[in-house]
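Record filed here:
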Amino acid sequence: MPTHYDQDAYAWALEQAAMLRSGKLDQLDTEHLAEEIECMGKSERRALVSQLARLLMHLLKRDHQPERRSRSWSLTIQDAQVKVNRLLNDNSSLKGSLSDLMLEAYDDARRAAAIETELDLDTFPEKCLYSFDEAVTLTPEKP
């Protein structure tokens, strides 16, 4: 008896993969399979927004607290740049949504920077001052 999607998602996924490989397409749980595929795509999008927000937050912190610049911030910026580029290389269709993704990420980054720096939210510009290309290619200054 096949595993129900809601009872054990991992076993269900393995069974679905086995059925696909063996050509048993009539036995597939197509409704849940379609949902899972959509979720996979959304997960990749969320990962990119998260890394962009991390990058933008550290750029904001660097720009608004120059006296607190550290090697750690520089390394975090470089790491986020690498991860953003890796995610885009693996999911090139997201390149067409970069302006929307940057808006979403900047909103998150601005709030996070205010929380982490304990500066007022209004300290940080409402609109992102970095283009995508600038954000992912800026070389962090050495502290």
The chain has one domain: 9-137. The CA atoms of residues 44 and 91 lie 8 Å apart. Residues 30-64 form the longest helix (35 residues). The helical segments are 9-21, 30-64, 71-90, 98-117, 132-137.
